[in-house]
Automatic annotation (TrEMBL):
Pfam families: DUF4295. It comes from the Bacteria. This is DUF4295 domain-containing protein.
Length: 52
């Protein structure tokens, strides 16, 4: 049986649902906004937004 290639960024998380979250952060020095994009498990979304 041939091995199948996994797409880049593939994560084997079993049955966990993953969500793409985008956080907007204001830079103090340049007074501009920076967007942080990340894929996190559903149960870690609040943790992602509560950290700076």
């Amino acid at each position: 049986m041939a091995k199948t290639k996994k797409p880049p960024g593939f994560q084997n998380n079993g049955s966990k649902k993953m969500t793409k979250v985008i956080r907007m952060i204001k830079s103090i020095k340049s007074r501009t906004y920076v967007f942080e994009e990340k894929i996190v498990p559903d149960n870690k979304i609040n943790d992602f937004f509560s950290t700076k």
